[in-house]
Design brief:
Layout lengths: L1 H21 L24 H21 L10 H24 L4 H18 L10 H9 L1 H22 L5 H19 L3 H21 L8 H22 L6 H6 L1 H16 L12 H8 L9 H29 L4 H23 L10
Helix pairs in contact: 1-2, 1-8, 2-3, 2-8, 2-9, 3-4, 3-9, 4-6, 6-9, 6-11, 7-8, 7-9, 7-13, 8-9, 13-14
Length: 367
């Protein structure tokens, strides 16, 4: 299984190198004044191409080795590989097109991810068959379309949630790796080596990209990479809950609560000001940490100074994610405890956000 992840890592690493050398020109079209821009210079934003290449060849290695008579003990077939890639390809293609042209509207991107979600629910039979709450589950299971609708929302929405937090070097990539490792761990706990293989290949392909992205900032994942990460996590999470009754549906909810709550709170915040949720702004949680906490960086070169601040921002959010991933892994089959940690995260997020907005940052967080 780790061998498949290594294949994904190598392909992602090499394709990233090629793109860094030959795909810089497209980055010239991105204006310096964008609120989500925290770097100097023209950096390729097509890391999604490299990551998807790593995923394609990493997963493909399983059925190829099996066809060659090499035992991998992983139940992956060419059909499994094709379904995984066919479902993810549209959202990656839409994201990469936006990265290359900056002309794909938010409405079209929503339609593309929604179409991919419908395709996944149809060809893979995905649904969330229960909520883990006894008095609701009887009603929930009597109306199967509710489970399909919830799976659709997760598959269509999580790519955009990962895109929201993809603002600094290594931020969304490490968050994705932590979530995928947690999904792989629980998959192995319930004996599902197929989902574990998918998740580990995603981690391997992400690691190949991160070699160039953090801390040097030589390439960005772009919308294509963020959409791929969100789609892969959503597919793995829905498949795991759908296949294994022991896994609480609140396990993936707690795993992904940071990006999910970030996009939920951002939508509420913008609509409260009469602004469309699709309009970018500069007061997302990770941006506030960059501006008001990671400030004590001094360097004569502006490019170097901004890169250092960029790199120092991500670990704050990695730690924040760890506070959800660890209890999720420990209590993956305990719905009440998982729900409690979801509430604790939301309360902690709001407390931190309001504290930073009001310039009342705890002294132990300042740098």
């Amino acid at each position: 299984m780790l061998g498949l992840a290594f294949v994904g890592f190598i392909f992602s690493l090499l394709v990233s190198l090629l793109l860094i050398r030959h795909a810089r020109r497209h980055a010239l079209q991105y204006a310096d004044g964008l609120p989500q821009r925290f770097h100097v210079g023209h950096i390729p934003r097509v890391g999604g191409v490299a990551i998807f290449t790593g995923v394609v060849f990493g997963v493909l290695a399983g059925p190829v080795l099996h066809a060659m008579g090499v035992s991998t003990n992983i139940p992956l077939t060419f059909k499994d590989w094709a379904l995984w890639c066919v479902v993810l390809a549209p959202i990656v293609a839409g994201g990469v097109y936006e990265d290359l042209t900056a002309r794909l509207s938010a409405r079209w991107r929503l339609l593309i991810t929604g179409g991919a979600a419908l395709l996944a629910c149809w060809v893979m039979g995905l649904n969330v068959p229960r909520l883990g709450i006894g008095w609701i589950d009887a009603f929930w299971m009597s109306m199967p379309f509710l489970g399909v609708a919830l799976a659709f929302i997760g598959l269509a929405g999580l790519p955009h949630a990962l895109n929201i937090i993809d603002g600094f070097n290594g931020l969304a990539g490490i968050v994705t790796a932590l979530i995928c490792l947690a999904l792989a761990h629980v998959s192995l706990q319930v004996g599902d080596r197929q989902i574990a293989a998918f998740m580990l290949v995603t981690v391997g392909a992400t690691a190949g990209f991160l070699y160039w992205n953090y801390p040097r900032g030589l390439m960005f994942a772009g919308d294509g990479g963020a959409y791929l990460w969100g789609g892969s996590i959503a597919l793995g999470a829905v498949m795991l809950v759908s296949r294994h009754r022991d896994v609480s549906p609140w396990f993936p909810m707690l795993l992904t609560i940071y990006p999910v709550w970030e996009v939920t709170f951002s939508t509420y915040r913008k609509m409260g000001r009469g602004v469309s949720p699709t309009v970018p702004d500069s007061i997302h949680f990770h941006m506030l940490i960059y501006r008001r906490i990671v400030r004590g960086v001094f360097h004569d070169d502006e490019t170097r100074r901004m890169l250092i601040r960029n790199n120092r921002t991500s670990p704050y959010l990695w730690g924040f994610t760890g506070l959800t991933v660890v209890p999720a892994v420990l209590f993956w089959n305990n719905t009440p405890v998982l729900m409690l940690f979801c509430v604790l995260f939301v309360v902690s997020y709001l407390w931190m956000y309001i504290s930073i907005i009001r310039f009342k940052v705890p002294r132990w967080l300042r740098r």
